[in-house]
Amino acid sequence: MSRKVDYVKDINDSKETWRLAVPIMDVWSVVNNKSIEHLEMIVMDSLGDRIQVFIRHDHLLKWKEVIKENMTCIINNGSVYNNDFQWKVCDHSKKFVFLGVTTMKAIELQNIPPKGYFFKDFGEILQGKCKTDRLEDIIGAVSEINYIQSNTPGKKVVVSVVLKDLKDNCINCNLWEIYGSKFLAYYNDPKNNGAIVILLTHAMVKDGQVSNAWSGSKLLINEDIPEIQDFMSKYSSKAPNPEKAYECSCGQKVEQPIPRYKIEIYVSNGESKYRFVFWDSECAAILGMTAEFMHNSMVENGEDDPMVYPNELEMLLNKKMAFRVKVQPTFSQASVWKFCDDEAFVKEIENDYIVEDV
Fold it and tell me: Replication protein A 70 kDa DNA-binding subunit B/D first OB fold domain location, by residue (predicted)?
């Protein structure tokens, strides 16, 4: 008589003779600070319940080439422990650990839910409604690029972008090393244009922003999968049509969009530097022209590429000013509230902050 399979929700530490009929939803390699590698994966049963699985280093050779993402299988025998992973991918209180007597057989299973993602709501991220040890799936459209750090001696690649969801919530997303490099390769490819939708799995959430995990995250950019295509379709339908009025998220009907400035500049004081964000009124005061006037001038001169920066913006460089700012450490930036470029006033401020050696 064939032994019946167990459900994930029933898994506990009372025995080691569990029998699971599951697809492998995700699998990834983890290398610790001692360069010891192990495998982790997520499996899900026919009820949609998931559990995180651990394969120790001493069993790695047996399973590394056998286990494939999206395969369906029967798994027999394994130890069960409390889910004490530093970073958890599901809510199950236990983890399933492969033993020397664990067996796994690839088999076609019926009534298994299709692979899906468990996207974290941006509103909950912004409100801090996140578990500090939980990795989340996120999806959003790139609305702007905050910062790009290239791969230079002593520094790692990092790209910081702002992601927007379908409710117009925005969060910062930091992509490190290979993830940042993958984004830049896509972004800099002239064949790619239009909206950029990012799907990031196993994202770490902290202080209202997200970043890739060092192990296990997957970055999908505008790929032909249902989740991304559905998001792109809904996001495109929300984009303003310049031929007709549209409704702002605040409820106001807008007949014609008005270009506004938002310019980020690194400001230095001695050897220290920090990113300052200049908003519309401050930029217009310095440049002596509105963003709309500058945009129209560029179009009249035959330049309609939004990624081309007008020469006039260089007027913002190499100026000595006194600023009043609001520091936003979460975003590693300061928002400019007021400024003054009067030389006498700037000199007075400088003198006030001179620290004399005693």
Answer: 6-105
